[in-house]
């Protein structure tokens, strides 16, 4: 579609909505975007703010494990609507989306739930045009296609064919992760998008927090004004995963570790023909990259000490890892169910929110362009499950480190009083600032991202309601003073960024800045 037609499509959509031409039919939005750009984050935002809207959501996954449905709690939500989750068993959803996908669409069309809108999230490696054709085939009217783009990393991945393809047929681009990107990166990304999309509407966002009516064409949006009743009117998620193309098993001595891999090469691939540089993500990806995925599963807890000192280090050194996500059960914090995310420019986080609802386990999916690098990481993950517990959980000097670090935090008025009940983990965090409307979660989330982004130490986080705490585990090789210096310097960056628009006469601001 040319730029003009694209703008007209957008205007028609707005006009139709205003004039009520949408009638009672189910709307449909297709969400596309490269791996880790924020598509699932957009879905969560829509589900959290749907009010009385009845949303049906279809999620398509590249890897052979349904990690997205774990992350989105799909099964529980599906059960609420008496729908089962869906697994693709034939064909690769990146190039062939018929079969189970069409059946899922048909089920949604035929369902008695009168959905207001269907949201289809394609996998990060899918070509949206295939989905468009399939929707048309089933008679679902596609209102608009939304692409989510990582503002920080767009210029590094723009040579990948699939990325270009995803951007060519969109009505709206959410230029996401603007909190991580510099102004230069944002305006550079906007230039790239203007050239590639032929004039689609580009909207800057952080965590895809955009008004719902920007991405959902639905005549029932007034329902949003009604009281939120998320529990009684759930959205629906139906998950699809790709077929297992290779499925070797690996079993370590004391755990059942399952490793599986799948591979996909885009239609237009021609590895090595263009500007492929092997240096790192910073050097950009090739125009015809081929992708593969590997899945790691175990019911034995992983050592956090080993995870941060070995696995993460190795992930940071890889040249081809594009995405990692999953659930992790750490031996040092067995009650918590951590969600691991690795995306964009080697951004990593592990946040625990929901408690375990079934037996604890770890399940991590890796996606990249070099299968041997993925396998090396999988082996390290399995070694973390075998890591001797006495090394990771015992010992005096870990506790000493923890207490020493807690003492330092305690002496800094910007922080809440640290907690040691999970020793050798130290639980700590910045105080929120109610006067300035800066929530603890925002401050501490930003602090975690700055610290983890530097890659010297690794912070995990726990969030529960309004509480948002950070956790640090200093192993024997760590220097407590160096770790504290890292935290303090990151704190200054975060506080000055988040607080710069506020009046310095406020006492709680003064406490943070000084
Ligand atoms: N800092 C920051 N992180 C973000 C933002 N949006 C999403 N993220 C994080 O980016 C990571 C990936 O986000 P997802 O929503 O899972 O990305 P996705 O596009 O669904 O990923 P795939 O389905 O694997 O392609 C998660 O850790 C998100 O919390 C943002 O605006 N800012």
UniProtKB/TrEMBL annotation:
SMART domains: CobW_C (SM00833)
Chain ranges of the CobW C-terminal domain: 291-382
Keyword Chaperone attributed: yes
Keyword line: Chaperone, Hydrolase, Nucleotide-binding
GO molecular function, one term: hydrolase activity
Residue ranges of the TM segments: none
Catalysed reactions listed for this entry: GTP + H2O = GDP + phosphate + H(+)
Pfam families: cobW, CobW_C
Keyword Ion transport tagged: no
Family to which the UniProt record says this protein belongs: Belongs to the SIMIBI class G3E GTPase family. ZNG1 subfamily.
Protein name (record): CobW C-terminal domain-containing protein
């Amino acid at each position: 579609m040319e730029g003009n037609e694209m703008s007209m499509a957008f205007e028609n959509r707005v006009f139709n909505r205003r004039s009520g031409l949408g009638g009672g039919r189910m709307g449909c939005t297709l969400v596309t975007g490269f791996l880790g750009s924020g598509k699932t984050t957009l879905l969560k935002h829509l589900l959290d703010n749907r009010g009385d809207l009845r949303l049906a959501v279809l999620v398509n996954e590249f890897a052979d494990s349904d990690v997205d449905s774990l992350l989105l709690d799909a099964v529980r939500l599906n059960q609420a609507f008496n729908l089962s989750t869906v697994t693709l068993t034939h064909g690769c959803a990146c190039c062939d989306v018929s079969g189970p996908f069409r059946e899922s669409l048909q089920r949604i069309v035929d369902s008695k739930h009168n959905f207001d809108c269907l949201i289809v999230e394609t996998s990060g490696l899918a070509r949206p045009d295939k989905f468009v054709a399939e929707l048309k085939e089933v008679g679902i009217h596609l209102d608009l296609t939304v692409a989510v783009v990582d503002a920080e990393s767009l210029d590094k991945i723009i040579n990948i064919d699939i990325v270009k393809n995803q951007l060519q047929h969109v009505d709206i681009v959410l230029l996401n992760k603007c909190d991580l990107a510099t102004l230069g990166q944002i305006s550079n990304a906007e230039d790239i998008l203007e050239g590639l999309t032929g004039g689609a509407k580009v909207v800057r966002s952080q965590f895809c927090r955009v008004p719902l009516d920007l991405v959902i064409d639905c005549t029932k949006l007034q329902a949003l004004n009604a009281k939120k009743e998320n529990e009684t009117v759930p959205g629906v998620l139906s998950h699809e995963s790709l077929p297992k193309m290779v499925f070797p098993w690996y079993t370590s001595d004391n755990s059942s570790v399952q490793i599986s891999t799948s591979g996909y090469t885009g239609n237009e691939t021609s590895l090595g023909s263009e500007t492929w540089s092997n240096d790192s993500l910073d050097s950009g990806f090739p125009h015809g990259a081929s992708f593969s995925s590997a899945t790691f599963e175990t019911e034995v807890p992983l050592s956090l000490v080993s995870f941060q000192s070995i696995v993460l280090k190795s992930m940071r050194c890889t040249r081809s890892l594009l995405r990692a996500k999953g659930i992790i059960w750490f031996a040092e914090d067995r009650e918590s169910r951590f969600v691991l995310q690795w995306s964009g420019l080697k951004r990593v986080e592990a946040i625990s929110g929901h408690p375990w609802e079934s037996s604890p386990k770890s399940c991590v999916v890796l996606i990249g362009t070099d299968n041997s690098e993925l396998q090396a990481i999988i082996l390290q993950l399995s070694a973390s499950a075998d890591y001797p517990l006495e090394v990771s959980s015992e010992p005096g000097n870990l506790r000493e480190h923890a207490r020493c670090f807690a003492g330092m935090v305690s002496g800094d008025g910007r922080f809440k009083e640290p907690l040691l009940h999970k020793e050798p983990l130290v639980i700590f965090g910045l105080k929120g600032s109610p006067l300035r409307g800066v929530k603890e979660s925002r401050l501490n989330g930003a602090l975690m991202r700055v610290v983890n982004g530097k890659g010297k130490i690794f912070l995990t986080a726990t969030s529960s309601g309004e509480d948002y705490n950070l956790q640090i585990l200093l192993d024997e090789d760590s220097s407590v003073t160096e770790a504290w210096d890292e935290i303090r310097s990151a704190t200054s960056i975060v506080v000055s960024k988040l607080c710069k628009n506020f009046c310095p006469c406020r006492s709680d601001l003064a406490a943070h800045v000084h």
